[in-house]
Structures are given as C-alpha cells and as structure tokens.
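Morning run. Coffee first, then this:
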Amino acid sequence: MVAPPPPADRLAALAAVAVDGVAYRDPGTEVAGLTGPAGYMAGFAGAFPGHRLRIDDVLEHHGRSLARWTRLDEQGGPASAGISTARHHEDGRLTDITGFFLPAWGRPRKARAPFGAPSCPTLWRAPHRPAVTFRRPGLSPWRPLSRRTPWRP
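And here it is:
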C-alpha cells in the first residue's frame, strides 16, 4: 500500500496543474482555492486507504476537457467510476472542475425509452424514421436486436 503524500507535496502537485483560485465540486462538496481541493483529496485518500484513481480517457477542445476515470481498490480492481469536466486557463492549468460519480459497478441497468416512446426495452419507433434498434452491452456491434430477442437485464 502506498502512503498518501504529505500535505505540502500534495499542494505543490496541485499548484503545478491548477490555478490559485481553482474551484472543485462534486455531488458531496464544493471547495475553492488550492487548499480546498488539496484538503478534499487528503480526506478522500483517508476514507479509502490503498485506493487510487486511474484516468481512462480524456477529451479536450477549446479550453475544456472531459475525463473518464475509475477508482481502483487495494487489489487493483474497479471500485467505482466517474466523469469529470474542467475548464482550463490559457496556460493549460485547471480553473474549474466538476466531478460526477457513476452508478455502482454490477448494479443492473434498466432500459429507458426515448421521451414519449412506448416502454418496450428492445425496439422503439421514432416518428421521423423507421424502427430504431438499441444494442445490449456485450453484443457485437454488427448484430442488431430483433423482435424475437428476449430481454435480459
């Protein structure tokens, strides 16, 4: 298990990638300035000892970014996942970060019909085009669902 860095090191690392007035928010907190996010990260590391974040994907354009991340447990397995959005200063450092936590791993998903469509989980018809099929996770992208395919969550 890796020990969390001392507060001074955490603050210096954050200052290298964020402006002094950086703002951070997620469903459970809203903090600002370098010391606010640094303190929040220290509390998060204390609440989940041995866990770490893995950045899975980052998309960026026009001074904004979207990152998909996974929190890994002590054994390196996925514990939770989330998405964060950020605005960047002209020098590339972070100015505003908003985090979103995704639903827990392994939780069954419910199919949702597009607004105003019948609640059939395998096939919905849109008024402006013929039948629209939606694929279930794990199926090949080349094999569309048919009306005879039973729905299994």
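The first strand starts at residue 18 and ends at 26. Good start to the day.
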